[in-house]
Amino acid sequence: MPKLKTHKATSKRYKLTGKKKMIQRQAGQDHFNSRESGNTTRSKRRDQRASKDNLKALKKLMPYL
Question: How many H-runs (helices) and E-runs (strands) does the chain carry?
């Protein structure tokens, strides 16, 4: 059986932690941030956990994680 290809765009957006959790960067950080409050800006600096609904699809896109 041939090797499965990893979806490169997905592998750049998601990372697998040591405890097998998928994390992703908080969305909406690129522009129009000056109007947002300081709390919103600070919360966007942290990575967030990928939703459990997406894990099955992510596993198919990144088979070797």
Answer: 3, 3
